Amino acid sequence: MADSLPSLAFVGAGSMGGAILRGVVASGIPVDGGITATNRTPEKAAAFADLDGVRSLALSETADGNVEAVADARIVLVGVKPAMVPDLLREIAPHLADDAIVVSLAAGVTLQTFADNLGAEVRVIRSMPNTPSTVGKGVTGVAAGAAATADDLALVHRLFATVGAVVEVPESQIDALSTISGSGPAYVYLLIEELTKAAVGLGFSEADARLMVEQTFIGATALLDASGEEPAELRRRVTSPKGTTERAVAVLQGAHLDRTFAAAADAALARARELAAGA
């Protein structure tokens, strides 16, 4: 069925894996063969036990839970901490179905690491979701490994589309993507923090300042989404000639926001490369 997903296994259903899992369930898309999730403790496993169609295993109670989870899964999402990935891959490798697609949720772990531990013939797709995926407003970058087919990529694209937008890139662009959509929410929150401080400085209470600023950001992005207009055009409509907004925008542009954001992205990318090199 084009409007269903095949059987899924979330191996290490942490915060991001859990967000994707919940997104799939909330979307109402049928999952042929069901969903299995593993976590280390019964407490973490209990968080998913009440979700319809989900079998949630605690590894402390079911030692071979990861093997059980992947045995019948068409798509296996690997969500354990990056340092744990090689050991996990070696554990599950003998038990993967011949047509299994392994999807990495682990930041900084390369497709080569997956090929080294699973075998070059295994279909692997590397992904980089962001935290707004938890509310269905995410951006996920996906990069296909050498053995993955166009159909495999389309299937994984459909999976991540349940929690937001999907961007297909070569692996060489995954780190750069992480500096924009991965780290980007932090940049937005920083802008909200600083504008809130400015509002308090103008005499508003902390509560009123937060309300005004947060709803302004939420409203502005909702208008951008609903209108289909370019951001520059929406900015122009707010900026009356010789008005207050024009003067404020001139101050912001005078602070060279273009160079600041470019430098921030460059710094994040440099650090991503250091982390990939083990620094």
Automatic annotation (TrEMBL):
Q: What is its main location?
A: cytoplasm
Keywords of the record, alphabetical order, are: Amino-acid biosynthesis, Cytoplasm, NADP, Oxidoreductase, Proline biosynthesis
Tell me which residues bind NADPH: 66
Tell me which EC number(s) this protein carries: 1.5.1.2
One GO term of the biological process aspect = L-proline biosynthetic process
Q: Which residues form the Pyrroline-5-carboxylate reductase dimerisation domain?
A: 171-275
Superkingdom is Bacteria
Q: Which reaction does it catalyse?
A: L-proline + NADP(+) = (S)-1-pyrroline-5-carboxylate + NADPH + 2 H(+); L-proline + NAD(+) = (S)-1-pyrroline-5-carboxylate + NADH + 2 H(+)
> GO cellular component annotations, sorted alphabetically?
cytoplasm
Domain Pyrroline-5-carboxylate reductase catalytic N-terminal intervals? 8-108
Q: What HAMAP family does the annotation carry?
A: P5C_reductase
Briefly state the protein's biological role: Catalyzes the reduction of 1-pyrroline-5-carboxylate (PCA) to L-proline.
- Protein name (Swiss-Prot/TrEMBL): Pyrroline-5-carboxylate reductase
Species name: Microbacterium foliorum
Traced from the root, the source organism's taxonomic lineage reads: Bacteria, Bacillati, Actinomycetota, Actinomycetes, Micrococcales
